[in-house]
Specification:
- A three-stranded antiparallel β-sheet has the order 1-2-3, with no helix packed on it.
- The longest helix is centred in the middle third of the chain and has 9 residues, at 36-44.
- It is built from one helix and three strands.
- It is of the alpha+beta class.
- It has one domain.
- The model has no long low-confidence stretch (mean pLDDT 78).
- The chain has one helix spanning 36-44; strands spanning 2-4, 9-14, 21-26.
């Protein structure tokens, strides 16, 4: 488990090669909305591919 940040904190948990990974975001004021499409697009940038600058890791 790792925790990053002071005002807004992200604590992640799980195993890289396990069945699930998770995270807890703390410190958000009430009423803040999240743009899930933007978050997903940023996560999609980590998907392995054959491009030269892409990660070579093998995800489950």
């Amino acid at each position: 488990m790792n925790t990053f940040g002071k005002l807004f904190r992200l604590t992640d948990f799980g195993e890289t090669d396990g069945k699930a990974l998770g995270g807890v975001l703390d410190g958000f004021p009430a009423g803040i909305t999240l743009d899930y499409d933007f978050i997903q697009s940023e996560l999609n940038r980590r998907i392995p591919s054959d491009k030269p600058n892409s990660t070579k890791r093998k995800e489950c």
